[in-house]
Specification:
alpha+beta; Umud Fragment, subunit A; eight-stranded antiparallel sheet; four-stranded antiparallel sheet; hydrolase; signal peptidase activity; EC 3.4.21.89; Signal peptidase I
């Protein structure tokens, strides 16, 4: 800034710039006068703001709403409207699952009541056909034939034995331990150690009473069956059904002859 020595006030101190001092002046372009309108401000007539020199868009004037400011609100409203629908969908799925479970349980009860039962084997009296822990499927059929494995009730338990005699049949045993029914020896390839005596306390030949069956275990040396008065013959109304298959364990799954 230029100075005029002749008009300077004598009492006003002069700034001491020192040796080699220079006045600090702004370099580069000058700033626009304060009285001018900034390029980032809205021009008269309501024109939209323009980017300033740094490439940034100036703030919108008061009272205006940004287009992006409504997006979170719209999303929140959308989420709020979808929440009840999702809840209804979950309840609907749960209801269907419960329906399937109830129907499955009902079918299982009907099957187990009128058609099939699954029994777990305990003991060794029916080896080698059944082993301790096997699961066997029994049909509720009381139409029996010689050699069928019958499930029957005895003292609130279910036992499994093989039918060898029917009402009126005469039962006896050969010297080798094979069963003789009405004078004919049975083919008992399923029997384990037929020659061993086992639990016998009745007199043979023995005639099967009316309405009853003569049953034996396949493991004759350990089985308590119709040879003993402890068990005796099986009444028709004791019969649950006939065993058709072993279903567990998988290594022992088989149809029963």
């Amino acid at each position: 800034m230029a100075t005029h020595r002749g008009s300077a006030n004598a009492n006003e101190p002069r700034p001491d710039l020192g040796n080699n001092a220079v006045e600090n002046k702004p370099k580069g372009k000058r700033r626009a006068p304060a009285s001018k309108v900034n390029e980032g401000e809205p021009a008269a007539g309501g024109e939209s703001p323009k980017p300033n020199r740094e490439g940034k868009r100036a703030a919108a004037p008061a009272g205006t709403v940004s287009e992006t400011s409504s997006e979170p609100a719209n999303q929140s409203a959308k989420d709020a409207s979808e929440a009840p629908r999702k809840a209804r969908s979950r309840w609907k799925i749960l209801g269907r699952v419960l329906e399937v479970a109830v129907v499955t349980a009902a079918v299982g009860i009907l099957i187990s009541t009128f058609f099939l039962s699954v029994l777990q084997i305990r003991g060794t009296s029916m080896e080698p056909t059944f082993h301790d822990g096997d699961l066997a499927v029994t049909t509720h059929s009381k139409s029996l034939e010689t050699g069928d494995i019958v499930a029957f009730y005895y003292n609130n338990k279910v036992l499994l034995k093989r039918v060898v005699g029917f009402p009126g049949d005469w039962i006896d045993f050969a010297e080798d331990g094979r069963v003789i029914v009405n004078g004919e020896k049975l083919d008992e390839s399923y029997v384990l150690d037929p020659g061993e005596g086992g639990n016998v306390d009745i007199t043979f030949p023995y005639q099967v009473p009316e309405g009853r069956y003569f049953v034996l275990g396949d493991h004759r040396s350990t089985s308590i069956d119709s040879r003993s008065e402890h068990l005796g013959t099986v009444a028709e109304d004791q019969v649950l059904g006939t065993v058709k298959a072993v279903v567990w364990p998988l290594t022992h799954v088989t149809w029963v002859d």
